[in-house]
Amino acid sequence: MYHLLSYYLIWFACLYTAAHQQAWIGIVIGVMVISGQLTWQFQVLDQMRHLLSLIFLVTLTGMLVDSAMIWLNIIVYKDNYFYPYFCPLWIVVLWIEFSIVIHLLLRPLWVKPMLTGFLALIGFSLAYFAAERMGAAHLVYGVYSAFIVGLIWMLLLPALLFIHHRREQYL
Question: What local confidence, expressed as pLDDT, does residue 2 receive?
């Protein structure tokens, strides 16, 4: 429950502060909460290596996809010092937190790619649409931009979880 509440706290903090051109506040909140989560998980050392591996894989992929969305003029993020070359830091914080939630709470979905893909289509589309409604992002093509993001993650998320699950078996 702690990790789920942490995810929503970070998500709302990052979006709200980015929408008000003060994303650094959301970043600080996110880093503090994530530090607490990782400290808690550090006590379970055998999981820590797998968690860090998933954080790296999902966060790097998320950053590349979001940056590509900026380059392709599908999404414009508020409070992005790296525009038009890279996604904002507050998005990176969100990807790190999303990775933690996937690892610690959504493990049963790893072996159900069809369900994971469907949930990614709906969840990512809604999350990006909500980001626009909160004022943290502008979806250049409106609902279609959100749907494009959902389609991309419908394919990517099950693939990333499959890759990570296979790697985890050998680590």
Answer: 84
| CA contacts within 13 A on the Cβ side of 107 | 8
Query: What tokens were used for 89?
Result: 């830091």
Radius of gyration of the chain (CA): 15
Q: What is the rounded distance in angstroms from the CA atom of residue 156 to the CA atom of residue 117?
A: 8
Helix (H) or strand (E) holding 77: strand 75-77
- Residue 167 has a pLDDT of 81
Distance CA 159, CA 117 (A): 9
Cα–Cα distance between 127 and 47 in angstroms, integer? 28
Kindly report, residue by residue over 136-168, the tens digit of the pLDDT. 999 999 999 999 999 999 999 999 999 988 887
